[in-house]
Amino acid sequence: MTKLIDGKQVANDLKVQIASSVKKLIALGITPGIAVILVGEDPASQIYVRNKQRAAEQLGIDSELINLPTTTSEAKLLAKIDQLNANPAIDAILVQAPLPAHINEERVQSAIAPEKDVDGFHPQNVGALYNNAKSYYPQANTPRGIMTLLAEYMPDLVGKKALVIGRSILVGRPMMAMLNNADATVTLAHRHTQDLDQLIATADLIVVAVGEPHFLKMSAAKADAVVIDVGINRLEDGSLVGDVLDDMPDSAQLLTPVPGGVGPMTIAMLMQTTIELARQHSTFE
Ligand code: NAD
């Protein structure tokens, strides 16, 4: 078996630290608060939102779910965001994607106050990430969770060949920027990339965020490659698989399992970002 990166364990350790930070903040009179807006009734989104809320509750973070009907107008959603921007009890605002087709996602992301933008999608925060700004700004939680896993399992990224496959706003693009900020040499591949096999065969680190079962075989990667599988795909039989097929018995490679790899880290990082924003809003620290 390829060696597995234990995302669950790293996420649980992080949650223990977060719970202790929340206690300290509460003792100072600061209760971190997150508002999650869900528009519509997409079953997968409902599960994601429930998991986020459960994690917040477990850690002592206040969470408010705002469930709006699919028919909600963009103006109404923007008005709700304005209200939350002005509410001092709310430190973090998350709008669950995907939004119904009649709502412009870019306008929604830009409407969230940058200092409450827990997903790090506001253009100001994206710009800070791309510029490797020194001051605090929230960063996208899935790639940030991956950076936390790498700190544990691949601490020296300097000069390493990192290949990111998939260039979504949620994963691939911020991943590219974070690895670049960590001084890796980054290649961003996507559906038009030529000679992908060649890039895969020479990369020290591969982050796969494509959304296709068994898109990458471990046997196509270097013998000591570290592979991060972001994909979450549900097969017809109901089972969950990632984008990677582990066909390398006894290899020295490292791989994140699905489930139990990147998923738990995303939620833990979301909570971490929430308490960081709460600290930023407080005058005590
Ligand atoms: P997306 O659909 O927005 O982007 C997919 C990307 O893959 C695109 O940039 C596309 O160019 C690229 N791609 C598609 N086919 C390709 C090919 N043949 N060769 C090279 N590149 C190709 O997806 P996303 O939102 O980034 O999500 C990707 C996967 O990660 C999904 O399965 C999603 O469910 C999962 N995901 C998991 C987490 C988590 O916390 N574990 C978080 C976000 C997304």
Automatic annotation (TrEMBL):
Its EC number is 1.5.1.5, 3.5.4.9. InterPro entries: Aminoacid_DH-like_N_sf, NAD(P)-bd_dom_sf, THF_DH/CycHdrlase, THF_DH/CycHdrlase_cat_dom, THF_DH/CycHdrlase_CS, THF_DH/CycHdrlase_NAD-bd_dom. The keyword Heme does not apply. Residues 5-119 form the Tetrahydrofolate dehydrogenase/cyclohydrolase catalytic domain. NADP(+) binds at residues 166-168, 232. Keywords: Amino-acid biosynthesis, Histidine biosynthesis, Hydrolase, Methionine biosynthesis, Multifunctional enzyme, NADP, One-carbon metabolism, Oxidoreductase, Purine biosynthesis. CDD domains: NAD_bind_m-THF_DH_Cyclohyd (cd01080). It catalyses: (6R)-5,10-methenyltetrahydrofolate + H2O = (6R)-10-formyltetrahydrofolate + H(+); (6R)-5,10-methylene-5,6,7,8-tetrahydrofolate + NADP(+) = (6R)-5,10-methenyltetrahydrofolate + NADPH. It comes from the Bacteria. Residues 141-281 form the Tetrahydrofolate dehydrogenase/cyclohydrolase NAD(P)-binding domain. Pathway: One-carbon metabolism; tetrahydrofolate interconversion. HAMAP family: THF_DHG_CYH. Catalyzes the oxidation of 5,10-methylenetetrahydrofolate to 5,10-methenyltetrahydrofolate and then the hydrolysis of 5,10-methenyltetrahydrofolate to 10-formyltetrahydrofolate. Homodimer. Belongs to the tetrahydrofolate dehydrogenase/cyclohydrolase family. This is Bifunctional protein FolD. The gene is folD.
